[in-house]
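We emphasize that the prediction below concerns an isolated chain of 441 residues; any contacts that depend on oligomerization or on bound cofactors are therefore not represented. The input was used exactly as deposited, without trimming of termini.
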Amino acid sequence: MAPLSAESLHRRPAGFGAALVVSALLAGCASPQPTLTAATPTALSQPSTAEIAATSPITPTAPSSPTPGPGLPELLGTPVAKLAAADLAGADADYQSLATLYPHNAEPWLGRAALAQRQSDWAAALKDLETAAAVDPQNMEALRQWALLLEARGDNAEVVKVYDRMVALKPGDANLLVARAQAYARIGGTAVALADLKSAERIDPNREFAWLNVSGAAYGTRQYQTAVDLAGAGLAAHPGSTGLLMQRGLAELSLGDGQTAIQDFDAASQLDPALPAAYHWKGRALLMQGDYSHAADALKQAASLGVQSGVEDVNLAYESMAFAADAMARSNVDAAFSYLADNVISYGSRDPLLLGYGLVRWRQGSIDQALTRMDALVGTGYTPALYWRGAINFDQKKRADAIADLQSFLGLQHSGPDVESARTMLKTLGVDPDATATPSP
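Result of the prediction step, given as a token string:
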């Protein structure tokens, strides 16, 4: 199931991996100039004319000129122009010369970092950004770009150190506090994340989505208890937030606490009786507990509400139909097939609906037909089918096939109840789930 946008989590919180775009949060922290445009250098960073003439291929105006010689902003125009002309080697040489001439200025290093990123040399870009922050420790743009690249590379342990430096420079920036809270949440740093969120809310009380996104960041890296704690603290400040209730419920369900999760899903549906996700996840939780009759009722309700709503809820509705059929098949396979057929007639052969046929075939004992259905869905790129094909293969003791499917699923999906189930199956098969390679962003 695709994650929802941050804006939709308050009303339709079905994805919960979504987090605030950190670049947007940090936009207010950036220096006004873009990466390849420098600020005026300080007096300490100005070299002598002799030094420039002796070491630089970029020649400033002679001292006898009646007009001042070019400063760093003007000199940076040369590598920028070469970069625009695709003369990457020339641009790199010029940036290196300027870094030597202006040893206390971050701008040449920011230029080199941009050049490295253009060539997808992430290690070099990180080194250049680290150097930029070292030569000019108070340069927020250098720190901001360094933090963003670390986050994009998934280096959560290192990025918090950069955010610590940024917050020390701008402790009253609410957006920066939220960005650091997200970074700490991803590594389970509940105390710092909680303190930053409270500080941000004191600066700007309209921060409900900050709580949601920071708890979502924890959820996205499987820091489920941190997600529960942060969502709970957010609910103390925003008791009417269905998004926070749903986020906490999903984290609880991922921890295996289905009964507590159901309480949160019920509370969300009481606040918003037309919220499909609340009924969907209550139904999924009941299904996991073996309460098939009540699970089918909740999932049918989710489907009925979802088809009357927007695109995201409609897609969730089709999944609800599939799982409702799965629940029905435990006692009446014919009724499950009839339910699916009626919905296919109404809504077409949607992948989530077709998943329901595979699940019902599995419950029926028609394993070959179930796997054939899952094969077709995997072929269309429908990720949940990888998990369910793996579960069927696991159930049928097809070890190699189960391992391949579950590892592939974990390479695409990184958190949530199905992820935890997949990890448990792999452990049962003697495979370390953390050995599964996940591609870097």
